[in-house]
Amino acid sequence: xxxxxxxxxKWLRAGDYMIQHKLSRAxxxxxxxxxxxxxxxxxxxxxxxxxxxxxxxxxxxxxxIRAGSNDVxxxxxxxxxxxxxxxxxxxxxxxxxx
Length: 98
Known about the structure:
- The chain is of the alpha+beta class.
- It has a domain at 27-89.
- It contains three helices and four strands; from the N terminus they run αβββααβ.
- The protein has helices spanning 8-20, 63-66, 70-79, and strands at 25-35, 38-50, 53-61, 84-89.
- The protein is globular and about 40 Å long.
- 19% of the residues are buried.
- The mean pLDDT is 85.
């Protein structure tokens, strides 16, 4: 399956936003795929807290869910891990010396 890539900066900004606002999940980006002028599906890029870690998830979402609010999309993504195209551990870059 082909899917568009997004830059590291988008993931980092979303992670910073989650930390600042004490959130457990956030939409990073989305791409809608069309077939014959109709929405076929969407790829949603999200940060989601799973147990004790934050995961970078790319999920396939049907059009009726894509048309909903961010909370509806995030609820769907959390409840349907079988639709995750990618699931990686989110580790923010550190610009300070340790």
